[in-house]
Amino acid sequence: MTALNDVFADYELLEADDRYRLLIDLGRSLEPMPDALKTDATLVRGCSAAVWLYPVERGDGSLHFLADSNAAITKGIVALVLLAVQDRRAEEILATDIEGALSPFDLRNQLSSNRTQGIPNMIALIRQTAERLKG
């Protein structure tokens, strides 16, 4: 997946419809999440669409997240969030201002509140996982 800044460089030049397409394409770029991991335990609460998030702790101490959604635009938003934290150590994730990294995208004004209402819950779950697994 590309860097968050690179995605924003494209995103800011686009009209609303093309921004939706960019998010959908970004969601398609997510690593496939096995259906066996899409359980109630990995479901992110508070999202209007189903969103699943599964952390994998790597041998080097970094966290790799598998994620999916049953809605294309929501899956793109999930991919954006992951660009801010993917394959980083727990301490780095905890030090990252995820909301700040996403703020240039102005998602709350670009998308309906239904599409963005679960973002804080997903970020909280990522932080809780990093807190639990930090060294």
Automatic annotation (TrEMBL):
Descriptive protein name: Fe-S metabolism protein SufE
Domain Fe-S metabolism associated: 15-128
Record Pfam families: SufE
Domain of life the protein comes from: Bacteria
InterPro entries associated with the record: Fe-S_metab-assoc_dom
Similarity comment: Belongs to the SufE family.
Annotated SUPFAM superfamilies: SufE/NifU (SSF82649)
